[in-house]
Specification:
The chain is mostly helical and about 70 residues long. The chain has 2 helices and no strands.
Amino acid sequence: VWQAVAHGASAFAFWLWRSPRGGNETLHGSVVDASGRPRAAYAEITRVGRELAGTWSLLQETRSKAVAALV
C-alpha cells in the first residue's frame, strides 16, 4: 500500500472482503472468511488503515509527477 501511495495512488482496494461459501474463488485471499472471522491479512490491513488515517493531513496535499505512463 505504501509503495502505491508513494507512486501517487489516491485509493487502494482489496480484492475480496469476505470469502465466498463456494465457487472458484473460495481459496482466494480475503480479509474475512465466509463466516466473518478475520483472516491472516486482517491485522495488517487494519494497521495500514490506521497509519494512513494518521498521515492523511500530510498526504492529502501531495501530488506526484509522472515521467512515464503505462497504457
